[in-house]
Protein 1
Amino acid sequence: MAASKNQRPPKSADKLLSWFVKDELLDEILGDLQEYYLELADRPKWKRSLFYWFHVLHFLRPFALKRISRTNSNYTTMFKHYFKISWRNLLRNKGYSLINIGGLAAGMTVAILISLWIYDELSFNKYHKNYDTIAKVYRTNKFDSFANTVHAPGLAAVLKTDYGDFFEDVALVRARLEERVIAVGEKKFSQSGYFMQDGGPQILTLDMKYGSQTGLKEMNSIMLSSSLAGKLFGEADPVGEMVTMDATTSLQVTGVYEDLPKNTEFSEASYLAPAELYVNGWTTLNVWDNYFIYIYLQIKPEHSFDEISATIAEAMMPHVDEETAESEPRIFLQPMSQWHLYSEFENGTPVTSQRLKAVWYNGIIGAFVLLLACINFMNLSTARSEKRAKEVGILKALGSHRSQLIQQFFSESMLVTLLAFVVAIFLVVFTLPWFNVVAAKAMVFPWASPLFWLAVLSIVGITGLLAGSYPALFLSSLSAVKVLKGTFKAGRLASLPRKVLVVIQFTVSISLIIGTLVVYQQLEYAKNRPVGYSRDGLISLRSASKEFKGKYLVLRNELKQTGMVEEIAEANYSVTDTRGWNGGFAWHGEKYEQTFNTIFVTYEYGKTVGLQFVEGRDFSRDITSDKSGIIINESAAKLFALENPVGEELTWQDRGSYTILGVVKDMVKGSPYEPTDPSVMFLGEFDMSWLYIRLNPAVGTHEALPKIQDVFARLTPSTPFDYTFADEAYALKFAEEERIGKLGFVFAGLAILISCLGLLGLSAFVAEQRIREIGIRKVLGASVANLWQMLSKDFVVLVVISCLVAMPLAWYFMDSWLDSFVYRSTISWSVFAITGAIALLITLATVSFQAIKAATADPVKSLRTE
Amino acid sequence: MEKEYIGELEELVLLLIVMLKDDAYGLAIRKALKEQASRTVTIGAVHGTVNRLESKGFIESRLGGATEERGGRHKRIFSLTASGRKVLERSRDVKVNLWRQIPELAINKLG
């Protein structure tokens, strides 16, 4: 025989075999296999092993496998039985089951969607690995009520040098997304990005696809997001390639980072460029009198945010001028975990932010909608309890233990909730894309998240327990004798909890409807607010690119020659934006304390934007002295408190005196809910960053735009023609409220739907219960109308009570919501009237369906039952 | 029991068990299948068949001797039971009966 080593078959195969083969068969099988292995002695070793394995695997047959479940206890049988009975119950009452499952599924869908949304809000910025140690620098001062995040670059330098021991890294970032045209050859895209110091990408732990995080060390470098790199270079590694910024600066690509997910602070940036590049040529990163940067930093883990905040509070004081020092600037750190939901300040102290409020509102609404669905379930099961009571009696007489009955009822409610849950999952998957659009988010269904499933299943468990608690605990306690003798009757009081629950349901639904209507009313009110300029047919365009330099008049001529354009103008800030604030105005040596919204515009601004003059006149090219003229709005005129403002002279800082040429109506530039700002318009030099084009109203937009684009393509070939319509830009100001309105509409609709489903079930139950009473009444001469009235009255009364409860509540909450707007509508009585009418109509329609069915039924049939 | 039918492989295995007598264990049956009927099956298939036959009551088994080439493990020796014998006989009778009724097949075969 061969050497003993050769006689041993592969051990792992034996091990596998002993793992899956029944113990009693193992011995003989191994013996046979071993013998077989020896028979193969003349074959090469690998062949022997292969054959051996082949035969081992062929023992994967039913006869040889170990039995996996050896238990044969009564539990499984019992549970099988419970579920079988529950299933039959569901099938027997198809209508009720549908109402139950449908309602619960709708409620769960809403709850899951809202949970996803809340999770998304709470996990904002968590993408960054240093989430726990990153902070943003905030500043308060004596005069501003809010906390400022825009600092002078000198502060970053001081934090780095004087307080460097506290921080892993400090990086300053240009305090605004900067729009630049990034081009490679013929491909050019207008992109937003941040200018930041080296250190920023490290703090944010960017996930580098190519290159390294230290890509911002050199001035002429740029890091691209993966999607922008894809647009410019395709799939190839672009590190080392050159791109052009705004057709003037050549930058080397030093890295490509994976796109930041949408729920991060920096997700809108598609490129990162060095802060040094941003200030190159006009300022430095050491100045203390120019506020234009954010400061991000990562603290060392051994320090705490509070400790550092206390230490650095007065870090600015030694460096700023006297005037700034007087305002007592104090700085502190805001940890990354607080940026999204806890960054609203009033009088220097944090207040509940709008976003956090939204999280609360939505959470409460979600819980309510789920509650409504649970109430349906409870109501329908209690309503049917009399019927089930007989079943309980018989089961008990046959020897059922109470605990078994409890389990029976709970398995029934669990089965319903589980079915509803499955339906809800489908609904969530189908509605998530739509929900993402409405909520402006990019949420995905977390199939792989154990936490999600745990949370959801625990909701299912709680819902099932809650919904099944009444029948399980109450019905199972009934005594068999009483029930079977027929002495058990749910008395008048028994229906009271049911009525209370219906009132709760409708109170919630009606409140939601009122809330939605008020939100829409406020939206309409703000949308119809006079804005002081005309948005239709007004196009705005960023003209900050250097290519525009000195081309204003040429552009104007060429554009007007196309016949598509009525007028064009430039301004240093957008018309839908409130930036640009200055003080230092004086009248006859009398100083004004207030600051004004100051913008610079060209001669044609008034005509282009459509300013409405109340007094005086617009700038004119024909009058040379207009160069030192100003136009003010009504709010400014009020602040200046001049009797006849037109013609008066004002001095501004040390720039000399300006004559007021005209007064215009207030312009709504910022939030349409806020009071308008006092503003002063100066005549500006050419080459400002916003270009406005008033389209010729006689021609259509589709006709005009290509011709306008031609002109730009000729004059500013390397800048893309990225225009926005002023009316669209303005409409964006309503996005947040429109979102609330849309979601509220859907939730309110679902709430009322679920409530009505419940009502439908209840009315069916009542009609069924009183079927003989109705029959007798009919025989005695009651008319259909009488019966209909009798059956509907109870429910209508409940809804009326709900209205009475809901209206003051809703009024109180919505009025305080409206109070957060300065420019707010009042809640008109019509909202309540409409809501009340809707609620009553829907109720009547729902209830009548059953009532009329019962009232028109043939009494002979109903009286013959039993 | 008498209504049980057996498959072709089962029948072969039953016959071979009778033939192999005291040496009728898994691997030997497999070998005999190959030699007598030119059927190559896996060891697992043989074990599966004998297990099935045993549970149908056609064969019974006892533990046989352990040899060195088996790594000191026992063989399981199978032997025919009375009902196994009956089922074999019935199967034979059915076939013989059929063959008798189709003389042309027998003639052709002979010719």
Protein 2
Amino acid sequence: MSANYRLGVVNNFDALPAAMEALSRWLEERQVSPPAAYLATLALEELVTNCIKYGYDDQAEHVITVEVGFTSGWMVMVVEDDGHAFNPLQQAEPDTSLPIEDRPIGGLGIHMLRKMSDRMEYVRENGKNRVTLHKAINP
Amino acid sequence: MQLSFAEIDGDVRRLNLAGNLDIAGTLAVETKVLAHCGGEQPLVLIDLAETLFVSSLGIRLLLQAIKTVAARGGRLFLLNPSAPVASVLDIAGLDSHIFRGGEAGAAAALRQKQSTNPSMPEKSP
């Protein structure tokens, strides 16, 4: 992928709004199709939030990297962190057909990314989690 | 994220959410949204016409609102979501709470369902 955009987000919730705004602005300036832009912004929030919540035991600062690029009609987004190993593809799918009163609150973030992307991949390599999302973009 | 509130004919609470229901937006309005879901048999419309983005945290808030209202014997419809937001609601399994029609029709449907059937709302026409 030719990385057109690269962003480092520290593992602190306070850093997330500015990062999301910066990515949204960058996507808007490039007139990225609304579904792809929505997915990219959603993935930033969901994956970084998961990492901040569950990825680290220490109090040190860590940087989660986000790359977005375009190639041959596809948007490709890569999110990489050095937190605990976590394969989102192994997370159980929530049962969204349950009656509301029986539905658990939460657990939908990864489900939404899997449904909204065309392909989602996970690799654990060199002590890092790397999630890659592919989304077709309109020509 | 901006929350505005109005009452329709004194019995239906209409909440308008303008902006992004992302982590910052959801945290900014969640207490107020849930406060409007209290009381006895609340009838609540959440207008999403000006909601541009909903993340899982936003879905969690909407789900909490629906559960809170239902637990109090009331009803809640989501109104006017844009296509991208409607798609997210569908993925999250909340599409059955979208009322596909205008505000007056939604308010009438809330009152009708309230008086005839205390169960969860069915998919609107």
